[in-house]
Task: inverse folding
């Protein structure tokens, strides 16, 4: 498939939600392609275009064993005619994410956590080029300038009437694109999935302004694969009542955070709210395999 054909954000809808007293809308980016879904679709677009312009035949990237970025890269690379290599953190394992990546033709190489930390190291990259041949490198999590150029295009799917836009934050590349492309009256409210204040500074660097955005950091539940029963209860109940599935790593926490901010009076009822569903539903199978079938989707 050509890049132009693959990178059409088809099937995106805006769904009205009335849940736990809060009325808001959800931008369903999760409906874009099954595997290369959500925000990763936008982050990959200009990177793969550059890879094609540079006549690379292969893309290589880094990620954890349950990473949405890994499966999205595998899927998009395959659809656009690239071979792909995933450098995976930790011991060799099997899980639904990695099986799906392999099914998309991705070659997986497992490296120790120590070696994984060298992912930006020129010597390590050179070693990988000797092993696999020339490739286009996409960083872990997929965030770079071209990714942010891509996530700016999410704004073209957001009608002007919304003035408060909620989004989940990992590396912040998606939120940075939104901050760059939003309309003046719109506020971007990020919900961090990770522990630590570093994201505030990173976001400031990427967004190049203090204006128009804010990150809630107290709802990460201890980090990526951490959770509490109330998060899982919300995900299951939200799905039952709205039909919208949420992943436990990003969007479950974002909706939980949005509702908490609403309940504690941090969000005024005058706002017209749009929550961006960034996808990541592939992660549910792996999460359930690890923790018991607690997510009923
Ligand atoms: C990667 C990811 C995010 C975080 O995106 P960043 O650009 O790294 O902040 C949010 N939601 C989902 C589903 C993701 O896969």
Result:
């Amino acid at each position: 498939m050509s890049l132009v054909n693959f990178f059409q954000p088809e099937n995106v809808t805006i769904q009205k939600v009335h849940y736990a007293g809060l009325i808001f809308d959800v931008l369903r980016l999760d409906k874009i392609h099954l595997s290369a879904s959500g925000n990763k679709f936008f982050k990959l677009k200009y990177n793969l275009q550059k890879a094609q312009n540079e006549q690379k035949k292969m893309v290589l990237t880094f990620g954890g064993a349950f990473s949405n970025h890994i499966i999205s890269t595998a899927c998009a690379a395959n659809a656009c005619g690239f071979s792909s290599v995933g450098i995976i953190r930790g011991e060799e394992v099997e899980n639904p994410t990695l099986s799906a990546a392999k099914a998309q033709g991705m070659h997986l190489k497992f490296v120790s956590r120590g070696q994984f930390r060298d992912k930006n190291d020129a010597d390590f990259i050179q070693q990988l080029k000797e092993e696999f041949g020339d490739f286009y490198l996409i960083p872990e999590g997929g965030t770079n300038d071209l990714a942010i150029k891509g996530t700016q295009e999410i704004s073209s799917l957001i009608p002007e009437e919304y003035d408060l836009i909620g989004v989940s934050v990992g590396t912040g590349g998606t939120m940075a694109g939104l901050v760059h492309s939003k309309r003046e009256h719109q506020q971007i409210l990020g919900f961090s999935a990770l522990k630590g204040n570093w994201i505030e500074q990173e976001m400031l660097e990427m967004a190049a302004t203090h204006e128009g955005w804010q990150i809630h950091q107290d709802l990460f539940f201890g980090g990526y694969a951490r959770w509490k029963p109330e998060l899982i209860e919300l995900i299951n109940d939200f799905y039952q009542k709205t039909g919208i599935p949420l992943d436990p790593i990003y969007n479950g926490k974002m909706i939980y955070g949005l509702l908490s901010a609403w309940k504690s009076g941090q969000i005024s009822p005058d706002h017209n709210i749009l929550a961006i569903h960034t996808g990541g539903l592939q992660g549910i199978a792996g999460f359930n395999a690890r923790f018991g079938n607690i997510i009923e989707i």
Observations:
- The radius of gyration is 19 Å.
- The first strand starts at residue 14 and ends at 19.
- The CA atoms of residues 166 and 189 lie 5 Å apart.
- The first helix runs from residue 3 to 6.
